[in-house]
Amino acid sequence: MADENAPDAAADETPAPQPSPLPPPSDVTIPKEEQYYTPIFIITATFGALFIILPLIVRKGPYKGWVTIYISQMNPLLGPRMRNTTVAWLAHKIGNPAKPASIGETDTNKS
């Protein structure tokens, strides 16, 4: 005989919480700031993989050093080229305003 005061076994079992389904891809919004970083991450990962794997693939010989040096020189040697107005604006924005040089302070007047 079953005890009438004992709770039913079915009453003790509560359904397990279901994980919430992921929203459809059309509902996922990426913040605008993060959208600009995606191409940078992809390009960095691609070139990083090439720069690490390519020197390992090239057999030991006269060209191994050449490949390594060539890969390391892929960026321009002179860096970005900016107009004077751009440099002055950047200096102003970081709090270091450029001071105009007087005629006597130019490099061409050195003796």
What is the molecular shape? flat
Strand content: under 5%
Radius of gyration: 33 Å
Number of DSSP strands?
Answer: 0
**Uncertain parts:** none
Query: End-to-end distance, in Å?
Result: 117 Å
Helix content: 40-55%
Q: What's the average pLDDT?
A: 71
Concise synopsis of the structure shown:
Keywords: Membrane, Transmembrane, Transmembrane helix. The protein is mostly helical and 111 residues long. The chain has a domain of 45 residues.
Describe this structure in words.
The protein has 111 residues and is mostly helical. It has a domain at 32-76. Helix content is 44%, strand content 0%. It is built from four helices and no strands. The protein has helices at 9-12, 32-57, 64-72, 84-93. The longest helix is centred in the middle third of the chain and has 26 residues, at 32-57. The model has no long low-confidence stretch (mean pLDDT 71).
Descriptive keywords:
single chain; 111 residues; mainly alpha; flat
Helices and strands in order, then pairings?
Blueprint: H1 9-12, H2 32-57, H3 64-72, H4 84-93
Biased composition (Pro residues): 16-26
Keywords: Membrane, Transmembrane, Transmembrane helix
Region (Disordered): 1-30
